Amino acid sequence: MTEASDRPAPSRRTLLCGAAAVLAASGGTVAVAGCSSSSSSGGATAGAAPVDLGAADAVPVGGGKVFREQKIVVTQPEAGQYKAFSAKCTHAGCVVDQVKAGQILCPCHGSKFAIADGAVADGPAPTPLPSYPVTVQDGKLQVTPS
Asked: Which residues contact 59 (CB under 8 A, 6 or more apart)?
């Protein structure tokens, strides 16, 4: 038999995640960040179905619209040219909150992204916003998060 002192102590994360699983199994509600073993950045999963975001004409030419609930931002750099991006800032994961003067703006730390390609226009964001395929069908925006 092994003594308790011979076994490594479980990490705090392991204990919290185990407690969360027990609570969830008993019908309780809990939100614990960091319990996933996945290295996902929290975006949509691969092979996701297209998301209907409503009327394409709601996205102004030279601007864009943030779909906060879906965490998607759609821009229209030129008439009829739609671009879609993750609305999660690549700096700290905040959701961008507006599109203004040709830039997608993050309220948390001031990062700015270009509406044409999601490129970082001003940091601290280290990388561009991930882009998503976008189509217009029957006047409605369809975005496929990936």
From this structure: 65, 74, 75, 76, 82, 141
Which residues in 82-102 are b (16+ Cβ under 10 Å) and which e? bbbbbbbbbbeeebbbebeee
Alpha carbon separation from 55 to 48, 64, 74, 97, 117 (Å, rounded): 21, 13, 11, 19, 21
CB 65 within 8 A of CB 59: yes
The residues with which 136 forms a beta bridge, in sequence order, are 141
Angle at 131 between CA 127 and CA 97, to 5 degrees: 75
Distance, C-alpha 43 to centroid of its chain: 5
Q: Considering the entire predicted model, what is its pTM?
A: 0.67
Kindly report, residue by residue over 45-88, the tens digit of the pLDDT. 456 789 999 999 999 999 999 999 999 999 999 999 999 999 99
- Nearby residues of 101 by Cβ (< 8 Å), 6 or more positions away: none
